[in-house]
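Case study: UPF0301 protein PTE30175_01444.
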Amino acid sequence: MPNDRINLTNQFLIAMPGMADPTFSGTVVYLCEHSERGAIGLVINRPTDIDLQSLFDRLDLKLEIEPLVHQPVFFGGPVQTERGFVLHEATGTTYSSSLSVPGGLEMTTSKDVLEAVAHGGGPSRFLLTLGHSGWSAGQLEDEISKNGWLTVAADPGIVFEVPPAERFEAALALLGISSSMLSADAGHA
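Here is what the predicted structure looks like once written out:
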């Protein structure tokens, strides 16, 4: 029996205007894992009012890198919002709890990556979120089939170099479209 299941690991999910869940309206999600068991990802374009300095203070870590002090912490999704998730480029360093995304980035959930960042030895390009986005088996595929999401191969440059307010349009541009071209209504030919 052929395996015709789609694998969206290392892809962006771009919320369509008709997204039924207001939590995800206008979001871009980096998919860290997608399998027959479900999917996990991080919203990359929703900064919170918490900055790294505030979060590190709560964790009793001294952030020694001045340019990072005011970097925002992001809303990664509605699941485990009390837990931190660090999306970063591979550094060659092994952290206690990391998921290496095939062909893509790494997602680390252990405090050791934050300790490394605090002392200037961690990944130079990273995005820290509180919470993640998760889908049970078949749920994401169902949402895509109902015109909830567009998908495109992820570009780390959008995650780390594009200002958060511009990431939605930048992700759409990977498909050669802009938000003005999208409709909330699904059509049938």
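For the exam, be able to explain this: Residues 11-181 form a domain with the VC0467-like fold (CATH 3.40.1740.10).
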